[in-house]
Amino acid sequence: MEYIIRSKNISVTEAMDIHLRTTLDKIQKYEIMKNNKLVHVDLEYTKSGENDIKVSIDLTGKNNFLTATSKNKDFYKAVDLVLKKLEEQLKKIKDKITTNHTKRTSFAKVIDEEEYSDVELDEE
């Protein structure tokens, strides 16, 4: 995957970059993200009121577009919260796909059972 990291009012250190890449590699286990080529990461430091770091991640999958945003004073916590949100979205999509797939196969099993019950066997 290719990562595009954009930052506003904050400089991205090597440790921050490594942490971002290792946490984003965790979502590669989902089948939906296998064809994903590009990940956009936006980092923004705000001074108004509380000193917060806003992390926003956009993922483009095969048939969907996922985005998650989190604010926290600590950069690493903000990245972990965004990863948690993305994993929840990916699990939801994965569950939809698997339940739709199992519905189709269970319907096929019912048809097969009906066909076998209608067949008469000749006993000689």
From TrEMBL:
Keyword Coiled coil attributed: yes
Keyword Coiled coil set for record: yes
InterPro entries named in the record: HPF/YfiA_ribosome-assoc (IPR050574), RHF-like (IPR036567), RHF/RaiA (IPR003489)
GO MF annotations, alphabetized: ribosomal small subunit binding
GO CC term (a single one): cytosolic small ribosomal subunit
Coiled-coil boundaries: 76-103
Keyword field: Coiled coil, Translation regulation
Pfam family, one: Ribosomal_S30AE
GO biological process: negative regulation of translational elongation
Cleaved signal peptide residues: none
Protein name per its UniProtKB record: Ribosomal subunit interface protein
